């Protein structure tokens, strides 16, 4: 076996530079190498279980890896189904690493034996993400197999012992919130360094089991909890990574995207811009979670990966979409419409039958709650039996019942405790062959909400933005001076 090239220590493979955005580099590829699976998850969007018809051959997979490398891919995540149920998965993994590309797997952890793990490490596996959706009773019920929680935790421990980077992926459904604090404690105990959080989406099996879905209005409870856990986890060495269907402005947006860098905020669906999703039969999509129907951009048996990536309309929709043509409902008139563009396409299209209006938005839920209104979703159309099939849900607006009025504290402005310089980049127009550079916003120090750079008074809290920024900087300087004085006294005491 040839030597596996080492990754530069200073480089975070998935981190995107402005050059990656402009040049449309598919930095991250998420690849379903088989649909075979040994779990029976109630929320599985791909309805995994059995292999797809005409899954790619070994030779086709290895050639596809070579094509990714030529396009500049720096990280590949192998998924399923369950990736290691494919016999040649180590050959695929090895080819990825021969190109110097970071390779990870996302797994349910069931029957991920010592032998499989050791062989994967020898082939160059860099890390694993294990899906854990709550404590044992909830996880085993949602995943459909008794004992699957214990097997998932065991996989994490054994992978850690082999020197792999380990992370946990948690889907948040209707029953998940009470389990999150203790779940965080447990995954920190086993050595996880990253915890990805995402909302369960109305696709595939989740349409068959709509009771697993979190109602949109419950974001008003969820987001403060996630912010609390984010801060606690950071102090204990755990980084919370929110998925693309979590957040969208509101008082905690500065936490989610930039890991402490407030210049980074949500800037629209990334499908087809720096990420590629691949199905096991060679179907290429702009995001691995998107429905096949409507978002399949081609198949590598018919076209090269470069041709599909650069020239197909279904791949390029995120580069060319506009507020006027694509957004509707609340999102069409939202203050953040041009930068947010209705959040996650997968979430909105799967739920409502078309993209462009997303009720799973913290800013939206808070705004409606201030008016005494909330939204809920009710299934009106079943999903078909196909992988990534979608049904349809009705979006119902109703008055918040008197017994369920939102606590004022959940609607109050957030008080900033940390500040960083904000870089304002120019807005540039979209195109098929060029990445979209989204607008960048500034941060109001009065309420910690993002605002457009041209604003003088904050539209959210009414604060004079420049005055609030100066007051904040003055306070920050005083804190720095006090800290310096304390350090000086401690040094003198020594």
* Helical content band: 25-40%
Which class of secondary structure composition applies to the elements? alpha/beta
The strand count comes to 14
Portion in beta strands: 5-15%
Determine the N-to-C terminus distance.
57 Å
**Low-pLDDT sequence parts:** 4-11, 415-431
- The Cα radius of gyration reads 23 Å
Mean pLDDT: 89
Q: Which descriptor suits the 3D outline?
A: globular
Write a concise keyword list for the protein shown above:
494 residues, two-stranded antiparallel sheet, 14 strands, 14% strand
Q: Can you walk me through this structure?
A:
The protein has 18 helices and 14 strands. By secondary structure, it is α/β, with parallel strands linked by helices. Strands 7-6-5-4-3-2-1-8-9-10 form a 10-stranded mixed sheet. Strands 11-12 form a two-stranded antiparallel sheet. A hairpin with a 4-residue loop joins strand 8 and strand 9. Helix 2 runs parallel beside helix 3. The radius of gyration is 23 Å and the shape is globular.
């Amino acid at each position: 076996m040839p030597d596996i090239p080492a990754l530069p220590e200073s480089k975070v493979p998935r981190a995107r530079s402005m050059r990656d955005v402009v040049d449309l580099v598919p930095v991250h590829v998420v690849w379903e190498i088989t649909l075979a699976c040994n779990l029976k998850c109630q929320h599985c969007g791909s309805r995994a279980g059995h292999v797809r018809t005409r899954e790619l051959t070994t030779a086709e997979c290895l050639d596809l890896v070579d094509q990714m490398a030529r396009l500049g891919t720096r990280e590949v995540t192998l998924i399923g189904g369950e990736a290691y149920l494919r016999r040649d998965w180590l050959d695929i993994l090895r080819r990825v690493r021969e190109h110097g590309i970071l390779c990870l797997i996302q797994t349910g952890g069931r029957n991920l034996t010592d032998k499989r793990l050791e062989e994967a490490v020898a082939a160059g596996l860099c890390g694993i993400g294990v899906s854990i959706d709550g404590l044992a009773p909830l996880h085993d019920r949602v995943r459909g197999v008794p004992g699957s929680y214990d097997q998932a935790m065991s996989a994490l421990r054994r992978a850690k012992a082999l020197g792999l980077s380990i992370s946990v992926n948690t889907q948040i459904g209707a029953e998940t919130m009470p389990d999150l604090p203790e779940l965080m404690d447990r995954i920190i105990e086993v050595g996880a360094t990253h915890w990805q959080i995402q909302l369960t989406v109305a696709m595939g099996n989740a349409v068959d089991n709509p009771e697993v879905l979190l109602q949109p209005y419950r974001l008003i409870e969820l987001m403060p909890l996630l912010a609390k856990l984010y801060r606690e986890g950071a102090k204990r060495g755990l980084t919370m990574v929110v998925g693309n269907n979590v957040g969208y402005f509101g008082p905690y947006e500065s936490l989610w995207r930039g890991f402490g860098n407030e210049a980074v905020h949500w800037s629209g669906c990334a499908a087809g811009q720096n990420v590629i999703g691949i199905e096991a039969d060679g179907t290429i999509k702009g995001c691995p979670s998107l429905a096949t129907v409507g978002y399949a951009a081609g198949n590598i048996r018919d076209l090269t990966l470069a041709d599909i990536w650069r020239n197909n309309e279904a791949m390029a929709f995120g580069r060319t979409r506009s507020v006027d043509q694509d957004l509707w409902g609340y999102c069409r008139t939202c203050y953040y419409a041009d930068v947010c563009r209705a959040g996650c396409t997968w979430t909105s299209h799967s739920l409502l039958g078309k993209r462009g209006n997303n009720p799973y938005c913290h800013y939206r839920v808070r705004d409606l709650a201030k008016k005494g209104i909330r939204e809920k979703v009710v299934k009106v159309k079943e999903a078909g039996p196909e992988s990534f099939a979608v049904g349809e849900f009705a979006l119902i607006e109703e008055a918040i019942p008197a017994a369920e009025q939102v606590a004022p504290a959940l609607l109050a402005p957030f008080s900033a405790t940390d500040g960083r310089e904000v870089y304002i980049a120019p807005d540039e127009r979209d195109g098929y062959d060029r990445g979209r550079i989204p607008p960048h916003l500034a941060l109001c120090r009065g309420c910690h909400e993002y605002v457009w750079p041209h604003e003088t008074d904050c539209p959210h809290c009414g604060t004079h933005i420049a005055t609030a920024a100066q007051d904040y900087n003055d306070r920050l300087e005083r804190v720095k001076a006090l800290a310096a004085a304390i350090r000086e006294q401690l040094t003198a005491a020594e």
